[in-house]
Amino acid sequence: MNQEVAIVTGAARGIGYAIGRAMALQGIEVVLAGNMPDLQKQKADELCRMGYRVRAVELDVTSQASVGQMVDEVVHRVGMPTILVNNAGADTIKPFMDTVESEWWSTLDVNLMGAMRCSHAVIPHMQAKQYGRIVNIGSDAGRVGTSGQVVYSAAKAGLIGFSKALAREVVSFGITINTVCPGPTNTPLVDDILAKPHPRLYQALERSIPMKRFAEPDEIVPPVLMFISRTASYLTGQTVSASGGLTMM
């Protein structure tokens, strides 16, 4: 079997790093891509010292030029990517009527357009290999809607629709596209936008989860590993929640 090459965006910390690390432990050659180059390099170096094949590449998912440069670097220095995990995301917590249009575009640009840009750049290489696995990291907010996250919910709902429609277009090339929707997860992003500024909201949300706790990043990894597996050849266009029972569909 040819060596797998995976790109994970937003991979310096949190869910993205947990996914990248788990794939590296499976023997996949992993590229940690994102806009925290120093932290990414530190994490990549740590894994390399453990004997795994990991590289850090700087990436701004809101820039088509940056996306293209990242993919070119991966192809020339590592190999043609067979796996793409679109994990990069951003959000703020506030009522919709307190937001302004520039915030709408910023949220859509990272959470939806970023995945579109990366997929558009990577898919031609997967088509050439007649094989590929793309996993988009959505959110339960995109499935049910969340107060205080109206634009984020819209972006993640769009990501789910994008995944399904694109899955139909590329299935004949041996490429599958699926979505994993985490529920509330203890990540630095959630800490910054929820736990610190809104501790009472954090606690209320925690109580509403049947398991009575937020997930840890490693707990979001299993469905991603399922979808990227070569044995998951008959799974495409699917959406799976990892939310401790908060959302059951």
Kindly list the characteristics that best describe this protein.
249 residues; alpha/beta; Rossmann fold; seven-stranded parallel β-sheet; 9 helices; 7 strands; 48% helix
What does this structure look like?
There is one protein chain. The protein has helices spanning 14-25, 37-49, 64-77, 101-129, 141-144, 150-170, 188-195, 199-208, 221-228, and strands at residues 5-9, 29-34, 54-58, 83-86, 132-137, 175-182, 239-242. It is globular, with a radius of gyration of 17 Å. The chain has one domain (5-240): Rossmann fold (3-Layer(aba) Sandwich), CATH 3.40.50. Helix 3 (64-77) runs parallel beside helix 4 and helix 4 runs parallel beside helix 6 (150-170). The protein is built from nine helices and seven strands. It has 249 residues and is of the alpha/beta class. Strands 3-2-1-4-5-6-7 form a seven-stranded parallel β-sheet, sandwiched between helices.
- Which structural class best describes the helix and strand composition? alpha/beta
Low-confidence runs of at least 5 consecutive residues: none
Q: How many independent structural domains? A: 1
Q: Strand tally, please?
A: 7
Distinct helical segment count: 9
Q: Kindly, what is the distance between the CA atoms of the first and last residues, rounded to a whole number of angstroms?
A: 36 Å
Order of helices and strands: EHEHEHEHEHHEHHHE
Mean pLDDT: 95
**CATH homologous superfamily title:** NAD(P)-binding Rossmann-like Domain
Instruction: Report the CATH architecture.
Output: 3-Layer(aba) Sandwich
Biggest sheet strand order reads 3-2-1-4-5-6-7
